[in-house]
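Researcher: Quick sanity check before group meeting.
Model: Go ahead. Protein one:
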Amino acid sequence: MIDPLTRRRLSYRTLYVCIALVLIFIRLMPINHVPGGLPGPDLTLALTLAWVLRRPEYVPALLIVAVFLLEDMLFWRPIGLWAVIVLGATEFTRAREQALRDLPFALEWALVAVLLVAMMLVKRLVLLVVLVEQPALGLELFQMLMTLAAYPVVVLVSRVAFGLRRAAPGEVDAFGHRM
């Protein structure tokens, strides 16, 4: 028999992978046949940041790398670059989870904005150093703003639909360990 804590973690990890796969599938569908449209938000990134800021144990590093490596391959991005950048940002927040736990949402949103800007700058700098053609800066900025605008919606859906909330200060798991 599996204990409730492990079952809960595994169910949220499975849910994260399923949501990410659905989002990837939707992005691959040929919905808009007009070339040169504006990019939408990166919902997979917003979901990952929201879940890592709320319950980092539900989204382990290996799972994040696997999802974003799959995205890199399917969307013809430099393989591994975005996965490593997202991993760095999520590990940065994971290391500060205790300090960020009781952060008001406005400051959390500001932190996500800073992370998105830093991630975009690192990506552009690496692509500049290795002399790879880059997407237009305006399109990347627009996608970053769209992702930032979608972040509160992702947090709300995660809370209402999936019951994902932050661990309260002093909260303990089923074994009495502090979370």
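Researcher: Fine. The other one?
Model: Protein two, sequence then structure:
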Amino acid sequence: MKKLIIINGPNLNLLGKREPNIYGSLSFTEFLDEVKEKYPEVHLEYFQSNIEGELIDKLHDVGFSYDGVILNAAAYTHTSVGIGDAIKGIETPVVEVHISNTFAREEFRHQSFISPNAKGVILGFGLQSYELAIQSFL
């Protein structure tokens, strides 16, 4: 059984409420329940924090014992050298995920400190981006 974790960054706790025109109206908990049901062969955990250091600590915690990390660092994608370095320092492969197409948004969102150290990047497919990332580990 594959052991994966989805790690979400700042403001993603507001999914289903925040800017539904960009992020949809489904809460992440509702989506996660659907995904767990669809992939019973995957041990899937979830962690969300609005705090950069907590995201780095979680990457360190899982970075040597999990089969994969699905990371949506949200706004920290474009600002956090520390999260990029944390990914570089762990062994577990990381897939960078974004719900929206970041290249269709503000120019500052075109830069990622995650991508250079990620196994791959999936963006613009709504919540299905997470499911595509799960499939990449199967």
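Researcher: One line on it for the slide.
Model: Residues 13 and 48 are 7 Å apart (CA to CA).
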